[in-house]
Fold this sequence. Notes:
Largest sheet: none
Distance between the termini: 66 Å
Transmembrane segments: 39-60, 72-93, 100-121, 127-149, 156-176, 230-248, 276-303, 315-333, 345-365
InterPro entries: ABC_BtuC-like, ABC_transptr_permease_BtuC
Number of domains: 1
Strand content: under 5%
Number of strands: 0
Organism: Methanococcoides burtonii (strain DSM 6242 / NBRC 107633 / OCM 468 / ACE-M)
Order of helices and strands: HHHHHHHHHHHHHH
Mean pLDDT: 81
Helix content: over 70%
Low-confidence stretches: 4-9, 11-22
Pfam family, one: FecCD
GO biological process, one term: siderophore-iron import into cell
Amino acid sequence: MQNPFKKQQNIKSENIESxxxxxxxxAREGYxxxxxxxxxxxxxxxxxxxxxxxxxxxxGPLEISVAEVYKILLSSLFPGYFTNEGxxxxxVWNIRLPRIIxxxxxxxGLGVCGCVMQAVLKNPLASPFTLGISSGxxxxxxxxAVMGVGVIGGPYLLVGNAFLFSMLCALFIIALANFKGATSxxxxxxxxxxxxxxxxxxxxxxxxxxxxxxxxxxxxGMGDLSAFSWSNFSILLGVFVFCTPLLYLKANDxxxxxxxxxxxxxxxxxxxxxxxxxxxxxxLLIATVVCFTGTIAFIGLVAPHMARMVVGSDHKYxxxxxxxxxxxxxxxxxxxxxxILRPTMIPTGxxxxxxxxxxFMYLILKKKKKEFW
Length: 373
């Protein structure tokens, strides 16, 4: 015979468990809706990038019909089933498509690294070029153009020098900050000093450069995606596959560091190590992007701000959102520069600045009810 007291106790326990579950349901459902909105935004932006890329590949200075473009793409993917024409096939497969791929990868890298820089430096004006990476790359190009000296010869002379000097700048700043204490203020001040130093050295080389050398330096400094080709794809992809997951693994640490270094240390986070590790990875990724595309401004500054307004400050969602928005902005700006004044092509870096400055001024002047920093 079952003990009535035990039966009553079981019923009471079930009621407590049931009431506890019901009590937590609204909070759990609210959190699920909160996460669902962020995921919906990320998926929507990713789909928009895909559709926009599919549209951009069909437009350009040379008129090619939509049917011809996709016929060429299918013929390259499935040879023997579709026929293509030589000239139009070369234009679509070797010029337009690599340019779009470069825009997506460069925009994603600039957006993610801008988000990392702003989180690490705790500065809303931080960008991938805050630490002098772009000025170092410009100086490397100036050395290659004027003196013909580089770590790699041949067609990779400019690329090799841009990568080498941008990484040297980043490593010097990280070493200096580590020696003096890796605070955000130290990194910013060191970056400003390096920026001025290498900008001055680049101007000195421009002063002594010939017309052809000056044209190379100015053209590279404006930023352009036309130099990217399929031969560079594996290099850029390899750096992305290495750096991006490692940066994402530090998202929770950066969330905790937002409450202050002292509080983060009390929770077991080595803030100096996290700051140095993320800065090194971001510098490697940005140096790789910059050496192939030149100086492209404002993507790393604007994209994280736009993403933060939608998905908030949780870096688990802010990282991918900043990258996707960076890719969306860059391919849109590049397509606008290619087609707005046909047959003249406006460099990508100029278009990103022209589109980014009004939005940046809007961020400054807008009176937000909600502060994101």
